C-alpha cells in the first residue's frame, strides 16, 4: 500500500460472492479523495466463491485486504478480526449484503473526527427494507436491551458504525459484542453520536447470520453486560514520575 491509511473499512461476509464487487465500488465512490483508507473484508468461513472474487479484486486494488476464518465464527468474531488487523485509527463497519449504503460512511467518519470524546458513531436505520417480522424482532430486542442497559440507542443492529480503533480494543470481547457497542463504549467514558441512515434491500442472496444472531439477545449476555456496567470503576489518571 502506498500510504498509511487513516481509516479502515471492515466488512464481515459469509457467502456473499455476488455482492462483493458492487459494494466495493460503492465504498470507493464514497471515500476516494477524502481519506487515505483501506478496505478489509473478513471472509467468515465462506463456502461459495466469496474468497475467489476478493482475490481477483485484490489484484486490481492495493488498498483491499482479505482475512479468512477457517470456519465461521459469527459476526462479532469477524468484526473483531478486522479491527485487530486494521491500520487506521478510525474504523468503520458495514454489512456485506448491500443493505447498508456506503454513501453514509463519510458522515459517520466525520462525526468521529469531531471530538476526542466521541468513541462511537452509530447508524440508525430509517425506512427499513426487512420483512415485518424481522422489524418486529428488532423492535422488541432493542426495547428490552434499552430498558435494562439504558444505552439510549434505538437501533444497535445497524451494521453502519464508526469508532476509534483503540476504544474498541479496550472492550471485553464476547460473541454478540457488536450488539452491545453503545453500552460498552459509554462504560469506558466515551460519548455516542448518531447518524440516520436509509436502509435498502440486499443486492442478492439471503441472510447468512440467522434468526438467533439477529434478534434474541442471549439472556446471559445481557446480564453479563449489565454486570460489567455496574462493576465499572473510574479509570485512574496515571502520570509517570521522573527522577
TrEMBL record:
CDD domains: DPM_DPG-synthase_like. Transmembrane segments: none annotated. InterPro entries: Glyco_trans_2-like (IPR001173), Glycosyltransferase_2 (IPR050256), Nucleotide-diphossugar_trans (IPR029044). Keywords: Cell membrane, Glycosyltransferase, Lipopolysaccharide biosynthesis, Membrane, Transferase, Transmembrane, Transmembrane helix. One of its GO terms (cellular component) is plasma membrane. GO terms for molecular function: undecaprenyl-phosphate 4-deoxy-4-formamido-L-arabinose transferase activity. GO terms for biological process: lipopolysaccharide biosynthetic process. Residues 8-168 form the Glycosyltransferase 2-like domain. Pfam families: Glycos_transf_2 (PF00535). It comes from the Bacteria. This is Dolichol-phosphate mannosyltransferase. It comes from Bradyrhizobium neotropicale. The lineage of its organism: Bacteria, Pseudomonadati, Pseudomonadota, Alphaproteobacteria, Hyphomicrobiales.
